[in-house]
């Protein structure tokens, strides 16, 4: 890291962020600035989405490399396995490891709507979790690290990869519609070697807290990070509702519809996401994972609002708007 990111901004709770790979040069330049500023919150990691079927592979890698080279933040690569053979999935994991990425969010992904529905060799995210561990072990079968205090000659494996995260569905995966299955699926991913779960977007804190309770009762012990998105337009709220299969809260839907200005809509979305974030932290969530939609200001406003309400919160320093970067190409 070359220290491009500034001093860490203390929040008092762990945070992580999700980004998606940009499609244009202009968006890529803007995303670089966003990453630099998100890094100031000293996130546990920044994850980068991956188009199922591999459509975004190179663009995802470019963003992950930027995080590696310009910040001290751990980059996490989303990977999907739908439609892949074992050999293809193996190659994909190696390619990301070669680039220096050692944390993954292992996903099955959705088969293309117009495709033949073939899932490929790996039927679930749990199988991809296993494959990631296998590939890591093949690359570095063992490390000769003496176990402190143990008899001479005993070795232990070096802990790796850094993180293998998986998706969790507090209100049920749209295809399952039976939340017991989602707890079972999460437990299977843990058994396969996942060490972190990140939830799908949800709208109501009790849904997340009840899911965590059910998961714990079923034997899930890994941290379950709540995934929260500041939603600031009626269109995005509608899309998220479709994606999750959940009815968005009417209060937020109405606020976003009736607010005549962008500032008003942003304030409504930020207020909703902040209240949800505070409620899950109060309920014991191990941190916040924010779906940033590659935007900085809303994310900052949410974190600022939440941090202000936490006990022992430290004030966030004032920040000036990012400088305009001259565009060359
Ligand atoms: P799985 O967890 O394997 O399965 C999903 C659900 O199917 C389970 O929860 C369960 O309800 C059911 N299920 C699975 N196995 C069984 C079984 N054996 N028996 C019965 N039911 C079962 N998609 C992308 O394309 N790119 C991304 O970058 C991306 N990032 C994401 C990040 C997060 C945090 C989340 C929550 C989702 C993301 N997705 C992404 C969407 C994801 O690909 C979809 O949810 C997809 O439909 C399933 O992938 P999965 O990893 O959730 O699959």
From TrEMBL:
The keyword Oxidoreductase applies. Pfam families: MTHFR. InterPro entries: FAD-linked_oxidoreductase-like, Mehydrof_redctse-like. Keywords: FAD, Flavoprotein, Oxidoreductase. GO terms for biological process: methionine biosynthetic process; tetrahydrofolate interconversion. Residues 310-329 are annotated as: Disordered. The keyword Oxidoreductase applies. This is Methylenetetrahydrofolate reductase. It comes from Labedella gwakjiensis.
């Amino acid at each position: 890291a070359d220290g491009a990111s500034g001093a860490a901004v203390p929040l008092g709770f762990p945070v992580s962020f999700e980004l998606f790979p940009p499609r244009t040069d202009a968006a890529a330049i803007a995303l670089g600035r966003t990453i630099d500023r998100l890094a100031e919150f000293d996130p546990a990691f920044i994850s980068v989405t991956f188009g199922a079927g591999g459509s975004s592979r190179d663009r995802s890698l470019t963003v992950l490399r930027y995080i590696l080279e310009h910040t001290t933040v751990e980059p996490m690569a989303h990977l999907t396995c739908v439609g892949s053979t074992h050999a293809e999935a193996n190659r994909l994991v190696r390619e990301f490891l070669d680039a220096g990425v050692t944390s993954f969010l292992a996903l099955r992904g959705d088969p293309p709507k117009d495709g033949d529905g073939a899932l490929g060799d790996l039927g679930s995210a749990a199988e991809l979790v296993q494959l990631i561990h296998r590939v890591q072990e093949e690359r570095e079968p063992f490390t000769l690290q003496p176990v402190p205090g143990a008899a001479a000659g005993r070795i232990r494996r070096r802990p790796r990869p850094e993180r293998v995260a998986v998706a969790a569905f507090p209100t049920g995966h749209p295809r399952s519609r039976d939340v017991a299955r989602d707890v079972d699926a999460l437990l299977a991913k843990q058994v396969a070697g996942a060490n972190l779960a990140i939830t799908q977007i949800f709208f109501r804190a009790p849904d997340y807290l009840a899911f965590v309770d059910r998961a714990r009762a079923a034997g899930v012990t890994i941290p379950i990070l709540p995934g929260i998105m500041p939603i600031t337009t009626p269109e995005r709220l509608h899309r998220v509702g479709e994606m999750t299969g959940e009815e968005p809260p009417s209060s937020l839907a109405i606020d976003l519809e009736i607010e005549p200005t962008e500032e008003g809509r942003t304030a409504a979305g930020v207020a909703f996401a902040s209240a949800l974030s505070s409620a899950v932290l109060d309920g014991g969530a191990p941190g916040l994972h924010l779906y940033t939609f590659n935007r900085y200001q809303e994310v900052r406003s949410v974190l600022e609002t939440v941090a202000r309400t936490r006990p022992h919160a430290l004030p966030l320093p004032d920040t000036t708007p990012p400088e305009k970067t001259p565009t060359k190409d």
